[in-house]
């Protein structure tokens, strides 16, 4: 990521549009799970479908969309296609967001009950 949190200038509209499109791709729980899984290591579509609990055709369609958006890449290994995320910034953003939300969810049960009866 080239723009730091301390930068005061607004990014150009094109950059905001591109970021919104990338976040839009990740707004699908299935696609986010696929990117999360690929951030842990590369996989073929069969392995991804097993890991994320999706049907093979659906996972394949999600991968196509993620590839078109530039969030996922692939390479041939013999007869199979292996998918991976090689953009460290994408991996960082996904790990940070999912990790933060997982931490909150782990702490939330008592907090949620407390909020219900407050």
Taking the sheet with the most strands, its summary is: 3 strands, antiparallel
Uncertain runs: none
Biggest sheet strand line-up:
1-3-2
**Secondary-structure element string:** HHEHHEEH
Any overview of this molecule?
This protein is mainly alpha-helical. It has helices at residues 13-26, 29-40, 45-52, 56-68, 88-116, and strands spanning 43-44, 73-77, 80-84. It has a three-stranded antiparallel sheet.
Tags for this entry?
globular, 118 residues, mainly alpha, three-stranded antiparallel beta sheet, 64% helix
In short:
The chain is mainly α and 118 residues long.
SSE topology sketch:
Elements: H1 13-26, H2 29-40, E1 43-44, H3 45-52, H4 56-68, E2 73-77, E3 80-84, H5 88-116
Antiparallel strand pairs: 1-3, 2-3
Helix pairs in contact: 2-4, 2-5, 3-4
